[in-house]
């Protein structure tokens, strides 16, 4: 079994709850003296205070905890789980920060008692800077209306069309790889994701919309990391693109199959249509939410698959059996069970949205504990997925753990790569379709071999591999045969028609 050790690079820098100028920032020069694995002085073990939530008690212990969070939120969260169990609290200078890492507690916070929790206002304000009043940043009744609107454009019949777009774009990338021996996944897969996202959202490739569109989306998302002025400039350029697209689509009667055409032609429960400004915000939300999520997961997938010839062979045999020599399509995915296991295992190891937060709106009982109004509850799919209490050998890449025959520990309720509850990712089905189809198509056409060492994890807004990820590629016999025989019946598979080009 290949062990996948979690590695930090600036871990948690963009997710620490303490801003610049705080006590934690002022003490940053003392970070080197703090061991992330050392016990807290003045800490309380589970059970010592009865029903009082365990955690560091003395002022000094709490300051050490804040410094450790600044150094690595991921490692600190795992440390809390190991020392204090499924729920712990750090009483910070002005607030209480709760760490929920037991699946039962997480379900109570996100689902059963979700009405008692909302997103922290600093997070909502940051999202509004990025995506205006789109679904990504909305709250309350407005969020409910927007969620229904967006979901209407992600129904099964529409997903089938988006899946065909994803397959066409992936086939175009495969064609560009045919004369190469190595590929830089970090650049090629990100370009693929941008192309799919733009065709799904607007019906056009990025370069057809704006020569700077891909860069502008990346800059926009950098607003999560406080690059505010550059982000606002990029947002203005993106809005100009959307204004033109909205005008063109309204003039054409909104008959296209892309996301923007669908929401422009939709009405909400009160019979009202969407305004141009709202449509812009929804497009910003979609592109910002999609950026670096599927692409990062696909890069991690192909890297780990490259080091496992046995996994590659099983995927290839499954695709050949199900698709019978043609390229796989959406209708094949229910039968690509092993490919789905591989995708799930990568999402377990590297959940894109690795850290979530909820603000408690009123005192509420979670298990045998009370979480106080105003407290911030942190939930980490990354920590849940790498907890040996939930999954046997949690740092190992074992796709079979998602099969019915797996005999190790695998708690289904602990697997939440897209979040949980009402606020779970609205595009989760589309993301899983894109990921599974890409894995199937690439492995059908190429054998992969590792070149890069295991990348470090960069804990930003998503879990990215740090630095370029390079793999060797060798065309499979199927691709070689198709390339040498232009009349081969499979040649047409790489030229799928796309109604959204």
What profile does the largest beta sheet have? 5 strands, mixed
Give the overall shape.
globular
Mean pLDDT: 85
- Oligomeric status of the shown chains? single chain
Walkthrough of the structure:
This protein has 501 residues and is an alpha+beta fold. Helix content is 46%, strand content 9%. The chain is built from 19 helices and 12 strands. The strands form 4 sheets. It has a 5-stranded mixed sheet. Strand 6 and strand 7 form a beta hairpin. Helix 7 packs parallel to helix 18 and helix 8 runs antiparallel to helix 13. The C terminus is likely disordered.
Secondary structure: elements and pairs:
Blueprint lengths: L22 H4 L32 H13 L1 H12 L2 E5 L4 E5 L2 H10 L4 E2 L2 H11 L8 H13 L3 H22 L4 E3 H17 L4 H4 L3 H9 L6 H24 L7 H6 L11 H15 L3 H13 L2 H15 L13 H13 L6 E5 L3 E3 L2 E3 L4 E4 L1 H5 L42 H18 E5 L6 E3 L3 E3 L4 E6 L1 H8 L17
Parallel strand pairs: 2-8
Antiparallel strand pairs: 1-2, 3-5, 4-12, 5-8, 6-7, 9-12, 10-11
Helix pairs in contact: 2-3, 7-8, 7-18, 8-13, 8-14, 10-11, 11-13, 14-16, 14-18, 15-16, 15-18
